[in-house]
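ARCHIVE CARD
SHELF: 3
SLOT: left
DATA:
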Amino acid sequence: MTEYIGIDVSKQSLELWDGTQEGEVPNEKGLKTLKKLLKKRYGGEWNETVRFIYEPTGPYSNYLRAFAAEHEVQVYEVNPKKSANVAKVLGNRSKTDVVDTKMLSTFHALLTEEDFGVPEVDERAEQLGAELGSYEMIQKTRTMLANHVHSLEYKSGVTKKLKESLEKELGRLGAMEDQLEKEMEAVAEEHEETREDLNDLLSMNGVGVISAINLLYLS
């Protein structure tokens, strides 16, 4: 018998509903607690009968995706627009984790076995994604700090020590950006398929390394 488990993903936990039983486990690396729960409920071959249905929530669903890939669990990732429409049809006006979980579980009635699949985790893409996210965060921080330093030119009471400290931090952030850019380019250059695509993108007018890496990551 196939068990369809709706999973609501949050930063701290995973809320589960299989049509009869609720559950909650920590959203932790490796999801050991989830594995124990599944084995207890559905037996040692749980991964052959269980299907996950969940709505991706940015980085918070990465542990679940990696867990499903490792244990070859069939999953269906629900488009947020579809889940919102299903919730309206079912009359779920309240917005809680439990309600979302039960709605996701019932979603299986609209699906066929062909809609499910074992997710693929591309470690290279995951690394590029993490580095791109860090690069963008550092870039935004540096821009905000640069604007702040510029605004200090129009304020009194600004000491030389403060200005030098802030400018030093700007330099450190700039160096981190440069290092991340080099690391991302090196990752892309390591593999033949991405190396060729990267070089093709960089040959286009106006396309720099960061833009090219973004396009590679999204492809």
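SLOT: right
DATA:
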Amino acid sequence: MKGIIFLLLIMAFLGCDSTRKKPVIEEVNLVGTVGLDQPERLSEWGLFLEPLKELSPGLGVVPYDLNAPLFSDYAQKARFVKVPDGTRATYDSSEVMSFPVETILIKNFYYANDLRESDGERRIIETRLLIHEPPGWNALTYVWNEEQTEAFLEIAGKTVPISWTDEAGVLKRVNYSVPNLVQCKSCHERSGQMSPIGPTARQLNRDYTYEAGVENQLDHWEEAGLLSGLPGGDHRPKLPVWDDERTGTLDLRARAWLETNCAHCHRAEGPAKNTGLYLTYNETDQYKLGINKPPVAAGRGSGGLTYGIVPGKPDQSILVHRIESLDPGVMMPEVGRKMRDEEGISLIREWIAQMDGGRQL
């Protein structure tokens, strides 16, 4: 029975094709693995130097960060990109960059054992690869062993108990969920196709500390031959860092949090498009943002409340009810968390509380 369920899971993710797709890996500088059908070990991709746990990028692998990363049960993330030699991504002012075939986007999820120690030990939980194959994007997830020497391909998902000490010295625990491949697709769906979410111009427009020094990431990508079509600095959008008041107003920072945590589904091309609730950073229609908007289908998720956002009243707003909930049938996002983003919730509550019925966003 377990074998049948496993097979159905794979077929559902691969479009009911029982033949496993092969990632295009000829330009990934692999060590003796060209032509392998989905390498079982992360080390086989040749993306990081040994020792693997240091996450030291290999040839052509470039680190990057985002202005407003997605909340994932307080996991920290180390991101990298590998664009094949001789090709470049194409700049886009509003959507994710257009990456050439054979690009690999790499995201490592980890927890520092003690956040009070800047150079302390960490535990890497998983590494997700988003690979641009000729037919489209494909996702692979690798789960790290306890020794932190290797990560292994995981298709069906996994639960990993995690504990760490936060900045206040409080011990935190969570049963961290590594998603299965169907869940990966549910978040990365755009107009029915798998698509990257994070690397937009407004997310990448920030400084990063490289080995040679601090530089704007977009400028670095252009100089490194990874990006074409980059406009001047005054014409590049920039997303605020939602928990840093120096980077934007309360409105803009709340919108940045919603874009990152909600808008991958709640947009015109996303899997939640039928709700009519669109939470992208550039949305200007207050009704589509949920202000005085009733849900399309009232149910348990609404908590008996009437509108998505009630100006001045966070406790009467469905949006707050759902981002605060840990009930799997109520909470938003639906996957990717088992904890409350306390700081993000506080921001959204403050944003709604200072609204009035006639204000413009």
